[in-house]
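Fold this complex.
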Amino acid sequence: MTRRFGRRVVLEPTDLDVGTGEVVALGGPNGAGKSTLLAILAGALRPTGGTVAAPAKLGWMPQRPALYGRLTPRENLELFARLAGLADVGDAVARALAEVGLDVEERHAADLSVGNQQRLNLAIGLLGEPSVLLLDEPTASLDARRRGGLWELVARVRGAGGGVLFATHNLDEARRVADRLLVLEEGRLVYQGPPAGYREEPAPKPNAHEHKDGA
Amino acid sequence: MRAIRLLLGKDVRLLRRSPALAGALVVYPLVVALLVGLVVRYAGERPRVALVAPEGLPSVIVVGKQTFDLQQLFAGAKEVKLVRMPAAQADHQLASGQVLAILTVPRGFTSDLRGLERSPKLILRTTRGGLSTRVVEKLRSFVYSTNLDLQKAYIQANLAAVDLLLRGGGGTIGQTRFSLLGVRRARAELAALARSPDPAVASRAKKLGTFMGQLTGAVGQVGTFLRATANPIQLVHVEQGGRSWILSAQVQAYALALALAFVAVLLGAGAIVAEREENVLGRLVGGLAGFGRLVAEKIAFVTLVAAGLGLLLALVFGLIVELGHVSGGQPWQRVPLLLAGLLLAAAAFGAFGVLVGALAREAGTATLFAFLVALPLTLVSLVPKGTAPVVAWIGALFPFGHAVHAFTVALYDTHPAGLFARECAWLAALAVGYGLAARVAARRLL
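Structure:
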C-alpha cells in the first residue's frame, strides 16, 4: 500500500502481513508514517494505492484517545459497541472494562487522567474481542504496572491465535514483546525481521558549527 | 439507519449536558427576534425631507370659503417628516444624505392656490436610486391626501358659483368680481315675455323659457358631476385592530429565518468539527459509520434542534398574540404547516453549516467561517430580483430568502399551497445539494 497527502508521500509502497499468533512491533522515528500505516489498516484512512485485507474483528487503539469527552466511560463503550452491532452490549462492555481494569464509570471521560483516558481508548479497541489488535504507542501514558497489564493482554491475544501490530519508539520494548520488527523511516520500510537483528543508528551528534554558534 | 439513530442520540445527550449552549440556543432566537423587530421598525419611519419655501408659507389661506393652515398641513404630514430650511442648506443635506429629498414650494404657489385658475406646483428633488423611490411614493401619498382636502374646497367654491348662476346676484370667482341676472330670474323674465300680445315675441320667449328650464335642471346636477369627476375612484381607509409592528407577519418570518440561519449554520459547522476534535472520526469511518451517514446524522441533529427552536419562537409569538388580544394572523391553525417549513429550512441551513464545518476543519475557524459566510449570504437573499439579477440569483442559492417566503406564506396567505410547495421544494433541493457537497468535503476532516 501507499499513501500521499497531496504531493507529500507519507507512506511509500509497503508490503506487510501480520500472521495469526504473531506480535509485530512497528518502530521508527516521529513522522516516519507509523500512525498513518495503522490508520490505513484500521480502515480510517484509504490508501492512495494498494489494498488492505483486514479481518472482520479488528480492534484499533489510536495514539490520541478517540472517545467522547462528555460521555462516561460506560456510555462511550456502550455507544461504540452498539455502533459495531455487538449482540450483547452489556457483556461486551463489562469484558472490555475488566480487561483494562477501569472502574471510574461515573465521571466524564474528559475528566479522567491521561492514563485512564488511554485505558478507555484501549477498552474501546477491545470491544467485540477482535482477532487482530492495532495499537498506536499503547504504553505512552501508562505507568509501569499498567504497561505490564497491557503486555499480558497482548500475550493473551497471541495465545488465543490473534495477531497484534503495535507502534512504538521503544526498541527495548519491541525486543522484549514482539516476534517481528518493522522499521519505517520517512515512509519507507527499512527493516523487517527479528527484533534482535535490528541495530539502531546512533543519534547524530550536534553539528560542530551549530555547537560553536550555540556556545 | 441504526448508526444515524445512535449518533443522533449521542449528540442530543451531549447537548443536554451543555446547559450554557442549550440556554444560548433558547435565548438566541428571542434576542434575534427583538433585534430584527427593531431593525424592521425603521421601514415604518417617516423619511426626512427638506422643505424649501423661498417666499415663505402663509400660515392661513382661503380657498373658496374654506381656510387652510398650510404650515400645519406640512408639519402634520404623516407620510414624510418635512423640515424647513434654506435652499443652500437643503442642497448640502441632500448631497450628504441627511435628507432623502427636497420639496420646494416655488414662488407663486400660494397665489395659484388661492386663484383657482391653474394648478399650483410643488417641486421634488431626490438623488438617483437608493431610497428615492420610497420618498417619491411617500410624497405622492402626501400630495394625494392634501389634494383631497383642497378638492373639497374647490368644489365648494365651484358649487357656490353655480348657485350664483342659478340664483343671480354679485360674487367672486377667484379674484374676479361680477354680477349676474341668474337663470331663475331669466326664466321669470321670459315667462313674462311669453304672455306678450305679439305672437312672434311670445313664441320665441316660450322657446327660450323651455331652454332655461332644461338649463336649470342641468346646472342643478353640476354639483354631483363635479364631485364625481374630481375623484373618479376614492380610496376609503378603515382602521381596525391589527398586529403591532413587532408581531407583523413579515417581522415574524424574518425573525424565524434569521434565528434558524445562524443557529443551524453554526450548530452544523460545530457538530461535524466536534467529531474531529474528539478524534473519533477514524473509528467511525473505519467501519462503524461512513461519512455519508455521519453527514446525514449531523443534518438530522441540526434539523431537530433548529426546527424545535423555530417552533418555540413561533409559539412565543402566538402566545403574545393571544395574551395581547391582537387580531390578524392565524398563529395556531397554521403551526403544522409552519413546522413543515421549519424542518426543511433547518435541514437546508444545517446542511450548509455541515459543509462549512467540513471545509473549515477546526472549531474556531468553522465558527468564524460560518459567521463570515452566513451573514453576507443572508443579506444577499434580501436583494429583490429586479434590482440586481445576478446577486438575487446568488441569494436564491442560499436558504434564507426561501425560508422567509415559506414562513410568511405558511402563516398568513389565504391559499398557501402553491407558493409554499415551491419554496419548500427549493429548501429541500438546497438541503440535498449542500448535503452532498458536505459528504464530499467531509474527507478533509481526516
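The longest helix of chain A spans residues 144-159.
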